[in-house]
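Researcher: Good morning. I'm working through a list of sequences from a screen, and I'd like to move beyond sequence-only analysis. For each chain I'm collecting a predicted structure so we can compare shapes side by side. This is the next one on the list. No need for commentary yet; just the structure.
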Amino acid sequence: MRPVDDLIHTPDPAWPVLEAELAALGPAVEVLPVDPEAGRDCLHRLQVTARSRLGALALHTGGLLVDGGWLRVLGGGSPERGLPSLAEANGLPGDGQPPAALLVGHDVLGGRFEVSGAGPAAIGRPGEPGEVCYFAPDSLEWEELGCGHGAWLSWIAAGGTAEFYESQRWPGWRAEVEQLPASHGLAVYPFLWSSEAQEDLAATARRPAPLRELFAIQDETVAFLAANPDAEAVRIDVR
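Model: Good morning. C-alpha cells for this chain:
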C-alpha cells in the first residue's frame, strides 16, 4: 500500500484540466464538495494517484451530478447528497487488491457504469481490461463503451449524455429527477425491459426507490433469465 501523500504529490495532476472541462459544461454538471479527509481516505483505498482522473475525482470532489442528477459520477463521497465514495460503493477494504470491476457511476434508472478489471470475460463483461462498460436497465445487458474512465469523463463533459439517454427520457423527467437524493433512483413499472415500457415510457408508473433495490431487482431478473433460457416470452411478468 502506497502512502496517501505519495499518491497526492505527483507530477501533472489531473484535476486542473478535468475541472476546466467540467466547468465548460456549465449548470449541466454539479461538482459536489468533498471533506478533505474523506477524499484522502478514498484515494488511499483506491491506490491510484492524483495524476489519474479517477484519483482526481476521489481527492477533489464528492462526485458529480449530471443533468440535474440523472447521472451520478462517483468521487470522494457526499453523505449530505446521498452519494457514496468510490471506495464505499465498491467495498474497498484498503488492502491494495484491485477489484474485478470498479463501479464509477450510475443513473437514475439503475444503469451502472463500471471499469473492467484484469479479466472482464470471467465476470461476464464485454470489452477489454480498463474499459468502461454500461449495464443498460432496458436490456439487462452489459455494453462496452469503447473508452477508459478518463475518456468517459471527457465524453460527459462534452455533453454526450443527451444523445445517450434520449430514448430513456420522457416529458417532465427533469422535475422527477431533481427532487431525488443521489441514493435513490426511479423504479419503473412495467419494467424498463418490457415491451410496454419501450413502446410508451411516458405512460409507465414511476416511484422513488433506493438504488440498492433497483440493482437487486435487475440482478435477480438477470439470474432468473440465465437459469431459464426459455423464459424470454414472460420477461415482463418477472416480479
